[in-house]
Amino acid sequence: MSVIGTPVHRPAAVPPATHAAAVADLVRRYRQVPPGQRVRLAKRTSNLFRFGGAGDRTVRLDISALTGVIRVDPIARTAEVQGMATYETIVAATLEYGLMPLVVPQLKTITLGGAVTGLGIESTSFRHGLPHESLREFDILTADGEVITVTPDGEHAELFRGFPNSYGTLGYALRLLVDLQPVASYVRLEHRRVETADLATEIARVCDLDATDGPDFVDGTVFGKGEQYLTLGTFTDDPGDGISDYTGQQVFYKSINRRRSDTLTAHDYIWRWDTDWFWCSRTFGVQNPLIRWAWPRRYRRSDVYRRIVAFDRAKGITRRIGEVFGATPQELVVQDVEIPVERLAEFLDAFHAEIGIKPVWLCPLRLRDDRTWPLYPMKAHELYVNVGFWAQAPAKPGDPDGNNRRIEELVAELGGHKSLYSTVHYDEREFWERYNGPFYRELKQRYDPGGRLPDLYSKVTGSRRA
Hints:
It is a single chain. By secondary structure, this protein is of the alpha+beta class. The strands form three sheets. Strands 12-9-11-10-14-15-13-16 form an eight-stranded antiparallel beta sheet. Strands 3, 4, 5, 6, 7 and 8 form a six-stranded antiparallel beta sheet that branches. It has a two-stranded parallel sheet with strand order 1-2. It has 16 helices and 16 strands. Strand 6 and strand 7 form a beta hairpin.
């Protein structure tokens, strides 16, 4: 029984010698791959929304021996984990000590290595920034088959700054040392309805780090034009009037506009979005009470839904059915974008008018300190709001990517940034202007001079050239 009040299975620690042996084996297998052949890590799950094969010549390297937690230090409040450890595994290990990572992305199968080389965010990000900002050091396997330790101030300090948002094009994280924070047994929630005109002011107010009684967590849900709620969470050891459970018949997001307050265990709060993949489980009928009752609880989780989507995309089942019945062509619009808080209302107004997807997730964030990250150039001390939307929208006539392109234009107009885990439609010139091409090319030349790994533009657009 966890000290957090929710039963969790604590994974066995990975002995350092076992980790060292796993790294040595991976390096050996990597170096055996002939030059000219592409390499990918054979991960069991993915949270990327770029579907499609990697090509017949791609070699997939098994990394199943690098998915554990090496140690948790409750005194230093750190966790040393293997690069492919999922947050589900990390949280299970750290909650045993009354600790959790500073930022835990919403979905259980996101890996710490993936959140660092990509981007992750959650409702602590207004206070603690992004996952890579809590890193103390990490080991990576470089393109030439060497293992190096990367720290903020060492020989590879520029790689430490440039690894976030490089998406595995500069090497693979094998071991990471990350800061933790203490947790209480429960999280008390308050759901506040906020008018659009007041949204930016209210977000800035509740995210004021100088407030002595500020919340520990802040995020928001937009149910439609003019209907949005901010959810403030605060750690507590008092269960209040009772604990809610949204892993069974009840659906978390449906409680937001029905209840003014709520209480969850810390464990269940961390994973409140995973059970229904935010609200996306409705696509599979899982929110229908009868289907939900018959759908095994162990399969109500984001990775299961994502595999269903991947299978459907590969086989074209939904598309073919739509063609048979004359349905309006749909465009998959799966994006997370960061908008300066003062421009948020403008973004939402345009989004509702032109795209029309709902609900939409809001998550305030600011960088943790004065450090900036060259490949995702946000301003230090500025408050942004992540806007997340994951659904289909009617395709624009004559432009099957028109909704996604319009979102990219809108983000640029408002001084925002776009995460690269999903489809990318910038041309190459604009892409490198937005993601610091000169800095990236310097790192690429130093750590992958032979072009063994794809470059960032090729990786996120699916281009076959290196």
